[in-house]
Design a protein that fits this description.
By secondary structure, the chain is α/β, with parallel strands linked by helices. It has two domains: 22-147, no CATH class; 176-349, Rossmann fold (3-Layer(aba) Sandwich), CATH 3.40.50.150. Helices cover 22% and strands 24% of the residues. It has eight helices and 17 strands. The strands form four sheets. It has an eight-stranded mixed beta sheet. A four-stranded mixed beta sheet has the order 3-6-7-8, covered by helices on one side. Helix 6 links the parallel strand 11 and strand 12. The two termini are 33 Å apart. Residues 1-7 have low confidence and may be disordered. Bound molecules: zinc ion (ZN) (2 copies). One zinc ion binds next to loops. One zinc ion (ZN) is lined by residues 36-37, 39-40, 65, 67-68, 70.
Length: 350
Amino acid sequence: MDMNQLAAVSCPACGGSECIEPAEFILDNIYSRYMACGDCLPDPQLQKDLPFSKIEQKGYDNSPCTGCGKRHLDVVMADALSIMIEYGCRSKGSTLFDVGTPLISVGYPLAFPPRLGRNELVLIADNISRPVAEQLIRIPGIKGVIKREGAPSQSVGIQDTDCKPHTYELLAGCDMRCDVVTSSFGELCIYKSQSKIHIEFGRESPSKMRVLDGLYAQGQLMGKVVVDGFCGPGTLGLMCALAGAKRVIFNDAWKTAIENTLLNIEINKDILGFELTAYVDTSTLPDIAENIVHVASVEGNGVVMDVFHGDFRKLKEVIPDFDICLIDTFPSVNPAGFVWNGASGRIVII
Ligand SMILES: [Zn+2]
Ligand SMILES: [Zn+2]
């Protein structure tokens, strides 16, 4: 087994040094990150359902704030639409709604439209080509452009180990972004390679956290052995570590999920009080696991965590039992198929 120390955190997608921030830094600044400063122009009040030709006629100020350098989300989206119309992938009658789905680089429930600095928006768009995307990332504020494949309802990632993965295509820039995950027992930051990892919208993440809040309140996480069976970027397992679990087992068959989980262990390690001691060189892993591989071990602050790249159905070969096994699959997958014969613990469908 080839073990390496985890290197300093450069962005796994673009190699840049600014994409990945430590979780404490993000959490300390999240309230002010997207706020207007005293010098910011007022909300431009761009009508999102108005044809762009009308917005152009009225005119809008797209200059950055002289104080903080940020621009209103709608202004960034209007600039994007202007380029998309110029390149013919949107019509003059298109509205701001037709641009695509904007994901801010640090996802957090905001009560106001965000003001964006440099590289703070990952745009997911239909009907877009690479040359247009390369123009779009020159707009201040836009960090990456992802082309959506298939219907918006089709989840990104792998449904099962024998299925072809469904991924979006990163056309230009970088697709690493994070979400701040909030629970009754604390907050962590979870990074995602957003063209390859399920996108959570609206109430999805809060409703999953309410399930964990409930387990925490019932004393079912503190001091327990928890399996995060389809861990994705590691959200549920890391939150269980934060909740005081004594052992957390992460597993996913999708290599990107394992890479994201390792990154999220690293960037949250000071909050959780542990060190990632050693791990398998993930470049040697197949995109979709065939066998169970023990990728990493982490210890500290009363918790032991193990990361496995494997098919959930084979995990029982290496983990004989648990207290709680969390199963968080795609909405289209029937979780009833994932039974764990011989285990005494409780399986919780998230
Ligand atoms: Zn990056
Ligand atoms: Zn400002």
